[in-house]
Amino acid sequence: MKVREQFIIISITVVLAIIGIAVFWQPILWAFLLVGPLVIMGIFDIMQTSHTIRRNFPLLGRFRYILESIRPEIMQYFVETDTQGRPLNRILRSLIYRRAKGENDTEPFGTQMDLYHSGYEWLEHSMYAKHNPKDIGEFPRLIIGGKDCKQPYSSSLLNISAMSFGSLSKNAVLALNKGAKTGNFAHNTGEGGISSYHLENGGDLIWQVGTGYFGCRKDDGTFNEVTFRENATRPEVKMIEIKLSQGAKPGHGGILPASKNTEEIAKIRHVQPGIAVHSPPSHSAFSDPIQFMYFIKKLRELSDGKPIGFKLCLGRKQEFMDFCEAMIYTGIQPDFITVDGGEGGTGAAPVEFSNSMGMPLREGLIFVHDTLVGFNLRKDIKVIVAGKIITGFHMARAIALGADGCNSARAMMLSIGCIQALQCNTNTCPVGVATQNASLVKGLVVEDKAPRAKRYHEATIHSFLELVAAAGLNSPSELTRDHISKRVGLYNVKTYHDIYPPMKEGSLLNIDTIPDDYKKFFQLTRMMK
Known about the structure:
Layout: H1 3-22, H2 32-47, H3 52-56, H4 60-69, H5 71-79, H6 90-101, E1 121-123, E2 142-144, E3 153-155, E4 158-160, H7 170-183, E5 187-188, H8 196-199, E6 205-209, H9 225-232, E7 237-243, E8 255-256, H10 263-269, E9 277-278, H11 289-302, E10 308-313, H12 317-330, E11 336-340, H13 351-356, H14 361-374, E12 382-386, H15 392-401, E13 405-408, H16 410-415, H17 438-441, H18 446-470, E14 484-489, E15 492-495, H19 496-499, H20 524-527
Parallel strand pairs: 4-13, 5-6, 6-7, 7-10, 10-11, 11-12, 12-13
Antiparallel strand pairs: 1-14, 2-3, 8-9, 14-15
Helix pairs in contact: 1-2, 6-18, 7-18, 11-12, 12-14, 15-18
């Protein structure tokens, strides 16, 4: 007999039994307060047609959906090991929390990592390590601004990566920006525009201009020079970043779910409230590399000479080569390039894009750095990286591979209370970080969380400097690919210098010195002119 038929028989039997007993003992009728709702729910399960499990297993089938709904919490709290969690494992999450709270961030009993697993990496230390990170400067700064920049920016080596108001709550933005202000590091606005919450505490801003031109947008969605200048010349805005693509969804454009598009956010973005907002996949202000360089020049002029750069997740390598050739042809260069990796985070992205699009950070960074070196452009352009930058070692590895500085988003979110609930796209973030639900947002207390962002930043920079000192170096800029080793098999270890031999400066400017693996990117007739 099927469960459905059993439920019907049992329900009829129980109801009749209660009625029969009530003839002699009326208080038994109170049992209907428990039995009645169960019978009604079971009948509803049988009658509905959407869920086969509930239809075939009335009442019992509901437990399947209950267990499924709490599966992420069960996995995170009871099943996964310290090294298995995704996107960030428990070791990394715990490290961020401890640093943000100012607690002891050391670990007992040695590493939990499998040092003999292919892919394991380490920084090579020196017999002549520095005794104190202060010997190399407690908090070295990075000057961003090329030959045409009139207002160079002295940047921290670690800043808050792009996250929009809309994706994040107002309290999250306030906490991050106040942490950036007190910790002397920068806060990237994300492509959602500059809100009053970005300005309230006066933290340094990197204003990101995306394909939707939010904050500098005409009614038809095209670029607006007037409103761009109004925002770009604000004293809080230190740099402007043109977003070409991001790691989690390259070639797709940003997504703001309708549930998060409040009237306040819609006003900032110049869109209609209550609808899903999808940024275009590409820019309308330019359509080729030459036009892009002149767009960079225009933004630099409109901003009175502030640093202008662009962010991309590397896709077709040929297109970045074309950018470099356009820089040489026009004489126009960005002040910085932010390289995002395919492992980058987002509040919402199609699974196919987040899992199967975009070059991983390390390969993307190496190609961008080497290509700039080959075109003799690297000395004028700073390279920033984003994509799972969590610890001091992640910073050291990125800088050794060619970066000048780093951005972090998810670590900064965790520092102000994110618990990796993976509900960023549903407007139900339980800790008020990635939601516009007013009740949930109230739970995030800005005065408590802002110092945590500052402490996490400070502790991570300090850890990074300790690693540089342990390597016996006088400056982070001395890190090279020779300093990072990687296990590429059980019995084989190589440095990144061995895996990715450095590009010779200017080698892409002469047909006779172009490396073999780069020749396919060139139109030889143009190069021979």
